[in-house]
Amino acid sequence: MKFEHISELGRLERNLEENTAFQRESVLAILKKVREQGDAALFELTETFDGVCLGSLEVKAQEIEDAYDELGEEMIAVIREAAANIREYHEKQKRHSWFFTRDDGTMLGQQVTPLDSVGIYVPGGTAAYPSSVLMGAIPAQVAGVERIVLVSPPGKDEKLPAAVLVAANEAGVKHMFKVGGAQAVGALAYGTETIPKVDKITGPGNIYVALAKREVFGLVDIDMIAGPSEIAVLADETANARYIAADLLSQAEHDPRSAAILVTTSEKLGCDVIDEVKSQLDSLPRKEIAMEAIASYGAVYIVDTMEEGIEAINRIAPEHLEIMTEDPMSLLGKIRHAGAIFLGEYSSEPVGDYFAGSNHVLPTSGTARFSSPLNVDDFMKKSSVIRYSKQAMLENGRKISAFARLEGLEAHARAIDVRLEGKP
């Protein structure tokens, strides 16, 4: 991590297209195999890529029961409380159908309905991510989705992690399968003998999962193409350098391509944060990953004014933004582009990752300029409702047919004209 000039912000851009030609070719081959061979392909590919020879793709009831025994009451209670917080937050996002009428008898409205089925991809294999289960399943359930299908790569013991199974069960997921990678995305998109086809696929994954989601988009919907994690901290001289360093490293440990950025008006704070990052790195279990991320995508930007700092943040459009200033609320309204905004020194990014209730599936790679965190709307769709009265047709029909003829669509115009003729 070093000081950089604001003009170097473009260095932080990371494109999904970089070096993906080989991966895309592999993904296309995997998807074709799953589409043509179904379950047989899933068993074969799981053995090839995960080194696991599965007896069954579906998680059995006994495995869930065993997971509760393995996890223990203390962590079960934590998962339940986190789930309650997430549910409370997302309940407030739920939309409802609406209608209105005009004096001429016209009724217009919007009917809101949940998707029928959703697939949630949960990364795994060498790690457990119960938080990803809760963040995907609970908004879908709040929206009213009837069938939620979870897929996640199995460990060498042919099982999913206990924490993942408990989180899924607590979130009300009834369909859980032990398959990961691009083949899991294919199974959700096409359906197999065991895994049902879904209407939308959500959840983060590696480059193969991301590319597979891109390839099946259109056949099914997807949430987003997630890139490496990012955190930006906007701070003044009142901020705590130790807290900032810890928060920057909390994202740097994710991936060698994770970005960790400090934008500050205080050169002293910048120096202190760099020293703290070096000191805290020494004791991190994932030190090598964090070091590579900090070296490649870590930066400290010194700005002359807070307005200049805000401009830099809006250019970065970070996945996570922490504002550590004397009065963070006074700056909130000036932030136009950020996935999640954390205000004050006790609003550490992991608070949002696990427990506060907001969703941690966030736009990355600058896409916060035009997209939002995963939310209840992602699991619902809207239908326009139109009921035109005879009075409204008589008053407006000629205008409508004229508009149709303006576009050269005579059949459209005639569909209106036959109603204006008054003949049965």
TrEMBL record:
Residues 54-81 form a coiled coil. GO terms for cellular component: cytosol. Pfam families: Histidinol_dh. Zn(2+) binds at residues 251, 254, 353, 412. Binds 1 zinc ion per subunit. Its EC number is 1.1.1.23. Gene3D superfamilies: 1.20.5.1300, Nitrogenase molybdenum iron protein domain (3.40.50.1980). Its cofactor is Zn(2+). One of its GO terms (molecular function) is zinc ion binding. Pathway: Amino-acid biosynthesis; L-histidine biosynthesis; L-histidine from 5-phospho-alpha-D-ribose 1-diphosphate: step 9/9. It catalyses: L-histidinol + 2 NAD(+) + H2O = L-histidine + 2 NADH + 3 H(+). NAD(+) binds at residues 121, 183, 206. One of its GO terms (biological process) is L-histidine biosynthetic process. SUPFAM superfamilies: ALDH-like (SSF53720). The keyword Zinc applies. The keyword Ribonucleoprotein does not apply. Keywords: Amino-acid biosynthesis, Coiled coil, Histidine biosynthesis, Metal-binding, NAD, Oxidoreductase, Zinc. It comes from the Bacteria. The active site is at 319 (proton acceptor), 320 (proton acceptor). Substrate binds at residues 229, 251, 254, 320, 353, 407, 412. Catalyzes the sequential NAD-dependent oxidations of L-histidinol to L-histidinaldehyde and then to L-histidine. HAMAP family: HisD. Belongs to the histidinol dehydrogenase family. This is Histidinol dehydrogenase. The lineage of its organism: Bacteria, Bacillati, Bacillota, Bacilli, Bacillales. The gene is hisD.
